[in-house]
Amino acid sequence: MKFDKQIGMGYKNGNYSAFYVSEPFSESSLSAHATKDFQYYNLLRAWKGKDSSFPFNDSHNKTYNVRDESSWESTLKPRLRERLNSSKNIILFLSSITENSRALREEIDYGINTLGLPVIVIYPEYSDKQSLLTPTGKSLNNAINSLWNNLPIFRDSKSKVPVLHISLDKTLIEWALTDSDLMINAKCTAGDYFFN
Description:
Blueprint: E1 14-18, H1 30-34, H2 36-50, H3 72-85, E2 87-93, H4 102-114, E3 119-123, H5 142-147, H6 152-157, E4 162-167, H7 170-178, E5 191-194
Parallel strand pairs: 1-2, 2-3, 3-4, 4-5
Helix pairs in contact: 3-4
């Protein structure tokens, strides 16, 4: 097996969470905790903290944190890539407040277009699986499709990897996190998937 220096051949067991926060980002900042997408990410962390068997393995815990004043090119971007390189999939929180930030574009572009990571999209403003679908239950509804425009790199790249679309439902998230079809080493055919 040939070793690729850029991508690496490390153990890929993390779940990389991608979410919108205003830039520059600081987890210690009150503005980060006021951002809904960041709060949803923290919900996964809380579920894991309460129950160690919850299958969320946070890729953001695998490297040391960076400060707001860190350089994008020399520190922040390489750190995001390092975390993505050790991940088996991406958990993308996509909501009406999600914006096309530089960090989110980089995470999705590198994760999908370079690494081919499967994506679990969580739509936190939707409470159940039926709310994502058309009345026939055979496709995702227009409201979901329009959210993809908040993040064009995701909209334009998602056909390259398996993408599971789910509501903010702990049981569905737990199932998705343990499904080998949504892991890099055993992923299923590229395309959009959802529960009906």
